[in-house]
Specification:
The chain is α+β, with helices and mostly antiparallel strands and 64 residues long. It has helices at residues 8-13, 38-43, 52-62; strands spanning 14-16, 22-24, 48-49. It has a single domain, classed as Factor Xa Inhibitor (Irregular). The protein contains 3 helices and 3 strands; from the N terminus they run αββαβα. The radius of gyration is 15 Å and the shape is elongated. It starts with 7 loop residues before the first helix and ends with a helix.
């Protein structure tokens, strides 16, 4: 049986913490930033935990 391949898009978007939780970046922080308020871009700065409903699917894509 061949090895499972890691999903290339998923490995760029998610990271695993030391305790095994999945982190993601927030949306709407990529472009058109001159139209968005500084308050909004600061709020979108931090990483967030992946929702519980998506964890199983993402872990499978990452091969965890």
């Amino acid at each position: 049986m061949p090895k499972m391949k890691t999903h290339s898009g998923a490995k760029k978007r998610f990271r695993v913490t030391g305790s095994g939780k999945l982190m993601r970046q927030q949306a709407n922080r990529r472009h058109y930033l001159e139209h968005k308020s500084s308050r909004l871009t600061r709020r979108l700065k931090g990483d967030k935990l992946v929702s519980k409903g998506s964890v199983k699917q993402i872990k499978r894509m990452l091969g965890i």
